[in-house]
């Protein structure tokens, strides 16, 4: 999958700017924006959480972004498929099945304490549609990767950005265009889950 940066931790992150000290603020603001946060010790626990959501949401078809540098993520997807769900990670399969998928799964680079947003590398087409078309979206986030505010987020991005797309996601899709009544899910997912993983492979320890 094409990305703005293949290795954000090595090439963009700074221990003084990206660490776990902003987690509490991030969690509070994310919940205020209607994001649903699930804590997981590791990717195995994240898989259990995702399996529970698949059952609760009655999911049959999943589209998911994959990181070729993360065999653990590939294993997670294979295990989900063994449970009986259709899961598509190839960009051509994602393009074909995105309009009828029940769930999208993708990765965030970091969370922003000030807004409760997650920053997602959306250079590739599949990274964009996975978080826009299905009615529910799951983001997997390293809980240690949070920054203070939007200014810091752009500082981090500027270290590696040359071309492409980046996205900030703050809660589920919402609009108040019709009679100023807030509605969720009109222009995108109506449910937005953040699975915060404490022990990600090769994570930085702060």
From TrEMBL:
<dbReference type="InterPro" id="IPR037171">
    <property type="entry name" value="NagB/RpiA_transferase-like"/>
</dbReference>
<dbReference type="InterPro" id="IPR003741">
    <property type="entry name" value="LUD_dom"/>
</dbReference>
<dbReference type="Pfam" id="PF02589">
    <property type="entry name" value="LUD_dom"/>
</dbReference>
<dbReference type="InterPro" id="IPR024185">
    <property type="entry name" value="FTHF_cligase-like_sf"/>
</dbReference>
<protein>
    <submittedName>
        <fullName>L-lactate dehydrogenase complex protein LldG</fullName>
    </submittedName>
</protein>
<feature type="domain" description="LUD">
    <location>
        <begin position="24"/>
        <end position="197"/>
    </location>
</feature>
